[in-house]
Amino acid sequence: MSLDEFFVTGDPLILASQIAIGLTMVGLIALITYLKRWKWLWNEWFTTVDHKKIGIMYILAGVLMFFRGGVDGLLMKAQTSRPGLDLLDAQHYDEIFTTHGVIMILFMAMPLLIGIMNVVIPLQIGARDVAFPKLNAFSFWIFFAGAMLFNLSFVIGGSPDAGWTSYFPLAGKEFTPGVGNNYYAISLQIAGIGTLATGINFVVTIIKMRAPGMSWMKLPIFVWTTFITSIIIVAAFPILTIALLYMTLDRLFGTHFFTVAAGGDPMLWLNLFWLWGHPEVYIVVLPAFGMFSEVIATFARKNLYGYKSMVYAVAGIAFLSMLVWVHHFYTMGNSAAVNSIFSLTTMMIAIPTGVKIFNWLFTLRKGRIEFSTSMLWALAFIPCFTIGGVTGVMLAMAAADYQYHNTMFLVAHFHYVLIPGVVFAVFAGLYYWWPKMFGFKLNEKIGKWHFWLFVIGFNMTFMPMFFVGLDGMSRRMYTYAESTGWGAWLGFSAVGSLVMAAGFAALCYNIYWSFRYASRNVGNDPWNARSLEWATASPAPHYNFAVVPEVENLDDFWYKKKKGTLGLKKSDLKPVHMPSNSWTPIVLAGAFGLVGFFLVFEWIPLAIIAAVGIVVGLVANTFDYDDGYHIPVDELEEEEREWRGDLQ
Amino acid sequence: MTSHTTTPLEYKTEQSQMNILGFWVFLGAEIVLFSTLFASYFVLEHNTAGGPAGQDIFILKDVLIETFILLTSSFTSGLAIHSMRNHDKKGVLIWMIITLLLGAGFLYMEINEFIHYVHEGATIQTSGFTAAFFTLLGTHGAHVTFGIIWISLLLVQLVRRGITEKTSSKLFISSLYWHFLDVVWIFIFTFVYLKGMVM
């Protein structure tokens, strides 16, 4: 393979990015070296096992990927803004919609949600950390390795271009030669390991590490949604593992799982992909529902209406999510009976979802609503998401779907579900829990700019796509003729995407501004909130709680705050056990990334050599008997006095 | 568990309890993983594309011996855990080494079986059937290989440290894993080999 094939060349856009990436890397390395921060980075971040720091790293990675996926989206919008443009050619457009989909779902939505879960869940259940802190660090680093490998495709070897669903036979070697789709199969496999580990970690954390007295029906709703999401992860991700394994074997080793020529079955890919892919929708949307519930209850100054029905609704959605996957391919020749059954199960999901919408509305009813930025996101979510839900029911009707399928109508529908359902939630969560992570609030005024620009831009971008879709515009079309009459709609949509991008820029500016200028004096409970994470300092100390709290009620913190029984007795302090930092997670994940890279290029001997690194890491890990360390009482006392003033 | 009034050693610390629960959840994921492999196998098992089918190549005698070896190894790993609870380090070592030898014997036979299939003209690239067959069997075999290496490393730790709260929970978890592989094998034996030879 010549150097010319190895690096992607010949496209000025990609050349510019290569130069930009190179310069950024050199600049970052130079800057860190100049500031002498390597040791600090290694000790405080790269080897950390603290769930809060891991969460922050997830969020950082998610925001970076949001930027990458967002630029992909803007390029698509630019290309379709006028009929007959040739800003991007068909091949480049294929690559961009593929990477946009993969990055937004798996490398933007997932890490942002898992990041917030990581920061908040142990605090909300009154725990010192997750059940397996080192595994948690490994989850992050291996997700990161997968994400970076996927992004590398852009400049080295070529991007995947068979759509984010990578249907066979298109995704096979015959129709998609080159390494692009190898990147897809292998980087998703690597990142998926991390997600599965996170799922297991949170299931055990929530079962075993709840504070004394916190029975199942006293759990904050975000903990419930995280718990059920984790169960879906454990039930769904192994299916993706196997599907990707088959894809890798077909592409790299010439097997025939999905190629008809020697008895393979392309429908097997579709079924496996969506058996994972549909629950994945709920993996990203359920934690978001939990976050909205917390935010709405806090800023309406009321307890969540219908708490129990909310829990049952989440569980019901999780169950149904595994039974609907065929609605992604109604038109691929199933019998009428099969389509009818899946049509029915799909529409049934609207019932528990409706329950949740009504619960949020009833929570707002007669509440003393405070229109903070995070509350605004939650309020905007309800109507926008309802549009997504109603169009979803339209698509769920198998007969009608023969008309809509693979059109822009569908694309508009799932953006109306995923952007309000996930992105709005992440924004609400970031504004809400930012003080708990960093000890200061994000600026509310810039936050409102962020909100209005993003929400207006979002509706401008995706609403027109319903109409061009109903008018017959199929998805993934890189250009169209003027006679279709779509030019005005899509031009408006492209302007909307710029407004939305301005909203994102406002968020970035807000983060910058608040880091520099925001007041550091926000106290431990800046929103007058209800759940346990606000019972400790902001930012939360590395040991979370000096004394593990005892829980008596749902919204226990709220009741204790009203009764004034929140103080800390000096005599209750005992040494706190903490896990030690570890280098194995980052090194092990690095080895996985290296093996993945060699596999992408089908350099099998090199991959085997690099795999020795994985073995060494695993062996080192099993011989590691580090039991952590204890924080002495006087250190706890000093840190607690700093924010409490005095102890009882 | 009326005969045991005290908690077993492997459950003594909170972290051990969490590790064991975590491993059960992991086994849940493994069940989904193998179910997917089985489901794909059932979809593809008749797609032989002119290549050999199951009844052309399977040899019942060899598979029966493999089954016998693996089931016995599950029993001996159980005896090892029993010795562990009696604080009998030597017993653990003896029974676990027998378990590992049986596991290695199983692998040896399975590799021979694969070589035989390849000679019969059934490679992983031959058909949809062989792809699904070798991947299902190969995934199970890779799990057994991983288990042998893992348990060997645990035995080194046992020799060095003795039966402690930590080594015992590690060993207990590895025995859960080993039993799980056995259960998967019973499904392979029934739904791949027996079914393949009858139908």
UniProtKB/TrEMBL annotation, chain A:
Cross-referenced Gene3D superfamilies: Cytochrome c oxidase-like, subunit I domain (1.20.210.10)
Transmembrane parts of this sequence: 12-35, 56-76, 96-123, 135-156, 183-207, 219-247, 281-299, 311-330, 336-355, 376-400, 412-434, 446-468, 488-512, 606-623
Cofactor: how and how many bound: Heme A3. Binds a copper B center.
Membrane topology: Multi-pass membrane protein
Keyword Glycoprotein: no
UniProt entry keywords in alphabetical sequence: Cell membrane, Copper, Electron transport, Heme, Hydrogen ion transport, Ion transport, Iron, Membrane, Metal-binding, Oxidoreductase, Respiratory chain, Translocase, Transmembrane, Transmembrane helix, Transport
Protein name as it appears in the record: Quinol oxidase subunit 1
Species per Swiss-Prot/TrEMBL record: Gracilibacillus salitolerans
High-level lineage: Bacteria, Bacillati, Bacillota, Bacilli, Bacillales
TrEMBL record, chain B:
Main localization, broad class: membrane
UniProt keyword terms in alphabetical order: Cell membrane, Membrane, Oxidoreductase, Transmembrane, Transmembrane helix
Top EC class, one word: oxidoreductase
Subcellular location: Cell membrane
PROSITE patterns: COX3
Example GO BP: aerobic electron transport chain
EC number: 1.10.3.-
Domain of life according to the entry: Bacteria
Heme-copper oxidase subunit III family profile domain sequence ranges: 1-197
Reaction(s) catalysed by this chain's protein: 2 a quinol + O2 = 2 a quinone + 2 H2O
GO MF annotation terms: cytochrome-c oxidase activity; oxidoreductase activity
GO terms for cellular component: plasma membrane
Topology in membrane: Multi-pass membrane protein
Family annotation (InterPro entries): Cyt_c/ubiquinol_Oxase_su3 (IPR024791), Cyt_c_oxidase-like_su3 (IPR000298), Cyt_c_oxidase_su3-like_sf (IPR035973), Cyt_c_oxidase_su3_a-hlx (IPR013833), QoxC (IPR014246), Ubiquinol_oxase_su3_dom (IPR033946)
Transmembrane annotation, as ranges: 21-43, 63-81, 93-111, 131-156, 176-194
UniProt function note: Catalyzes quinol oxidation with the concomitant reduction of oxygen to water.
Family: Belongs to the cytochrome c oxidase subunit 3 family.
Name this protein carries in UniProt: Quinol oxidase subunit 3
Lineage: Bacteria, Bacillati, Bacillota, Bacilli, Bacillales
